[in-house]
Amino acid sequence: TAEAIFTPSTIWAESYAVAEVKFFRHVARQAPHDTSHLKCLQLSAHTLVGTGFSTYTLKTIVMHLLNTIPLSSWRRREFLMRLQDIMWYLHGCLEEKRLDHFFFGNENMPEDIVLPLDIQTAKPINLFQYLVHDPTAHTKALREFSVLQDQLIRLVFY
C-alpha cells in the first residue's frame, strides 16, 4: 500500500462546506414554501461569467442577507427586490473594500450551527482585503460590477 507523506510545511485549505450546508438546511427549514433564495443565488451566479467575482463571494453575500432579511421577504413576489439587495450589498462591499467571511466572528449565527469557539470569537476576515491595498484591483472590481449588473438586467428583463 502507498503511504502518504506528511510534512510540517503541509498546509490544508480550510473548508466551511459542512457549515454552509447546515446553514442552507436551517434556512430551508425556516423558510416559507415559496421562498426564492436559491433562485436568486442561481441567477446571480449565472451572471458571474466573464467577471472576476467568484461564486463564493456571491454565496457569502446571499448568506449574509439570508441572516439579516426575514425569510418571509424572500418569497417569489419579492424576487426582484432580493436580486437588487444582492447587487446593492455587493456594491456596498466593493465601495467599502470589505466583505466579511460569513462564519468568522459572525454573532448572528443560527444556534443550530455550532462552530469551534475560536471561529465564533475570531475577528471577521475581510474577503476583499486585496482591494484595500491594490487600487487597480479595486477599479477593476468596480468595472466588473457594472458588467455584472448589466448582465443581470439583461437576463431578468429580456
TrEMBL record:
Say which domain of life the source belongs to: Eukaryota
* Domain Mab-21-like HhH/H2TH-like span(s) in chain numbering: 52-109
Q: Which Pfam families does UniProt cross-reference here?
A: Mab-21_C (PF20266)
InterPro entries registered for this protein in UniProt: ITPRIP-like, Mab-21_HhH/H2TH-like
- Gene Ontology annotations for the cellular component aspect, listed alphabetically: membrane
Q: Which residues form the signal peptide?
A: none
According to UniProt, the name of this protein is IPIL1 protein
The uppermost taxa in this organism's lineage are: Eukaryota, Metazoa, Chordata, Craniata, Vertebrata
